[in-house]
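Whiteboard transcription, Tuesday session. T.W. wrote the structure tokens on the left side:
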């Protein structure tokens, strides 16, 4: 594999020490770049998750606040409707009293 029996070199010659070192440096460089990319990606994901968590909490708070306001307005509307019904029936009674009186 490292050469033919005739002594001629072949494609499968053993790489020189400098070629192996160059290949090793290239592999280490590629690994470092991949690790840096993954670290950057992880940081970006953490930022997004943090934002979404804060956004979820804020949105839930605002929705709860709006539900409380809506409940208050519904109770107030119910009260005003019942007051309006009472007032609308009173003039009939007053006009009957005036006619009889």
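and on the right, the sequence the group agreed on:
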């Amino acid at each position: 594999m490292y050469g033919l029996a005739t002594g001629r070199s072949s494609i499968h010659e053993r790489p020189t020490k400098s070629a192996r070192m160059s290949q090793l440096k290239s592999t280490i460089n590629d690994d470092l770049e991949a690790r840096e990319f993954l670290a950057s990606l992880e940081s970006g994901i953490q930022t997004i998750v943090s934002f979404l968590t804060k956004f979820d909490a804020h949105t839930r708070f605002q929705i709860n606040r709006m539900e409380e306001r809506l409940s208050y307005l519904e109770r107030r509307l119910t009260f005003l409707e019942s007051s309006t019904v009472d007032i609308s029936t009173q003039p009939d009674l007053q006009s009957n009293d005036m006619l009889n009186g």
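Someone added at the bottom: The mean pLDDT is 84.
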